[in-house]
Design a protein that fits this description.
Blueprint (H helix, E strand, L loop, with lengths): L1 H19 L2 H8 L19 E5 L14 E5 H15 L3 H4 L13 H6 L2
Amino acid sequence: MSEKLDRLVLEARRAADKRAEGYREKALKIYPWVCGRCAREFTVTNLRELTVHHRDHNHDNNPPDGSNWELLCVYCHDNEHQRQLEATQGNVAAKQPGKAATHSPFAGLGSLLKKE
């Protein structure tokens, strides 16, 4: 029984050490626990919602200084990947500048305020 428990503890420690070598754990040690886009702050209780984004979108590019990483909340991370997906699929609406607005919503406001 004791041998089985010792083996289980050893395997758990090895698994934890292996995870600690991963880029997420390294990024969490390097960077403050804040989303790089929306500036939402994280604590131990909600840290699972903070993800590591690879700036060049290459998950194999993991320099030890973390220069290819940024911490993003799950919402900002999803948004970033959606924007990248649309750009690579040639979404022309996202690439073309929009037309200038010609409607003036407050055009008649002055005359309405003068009525009394």
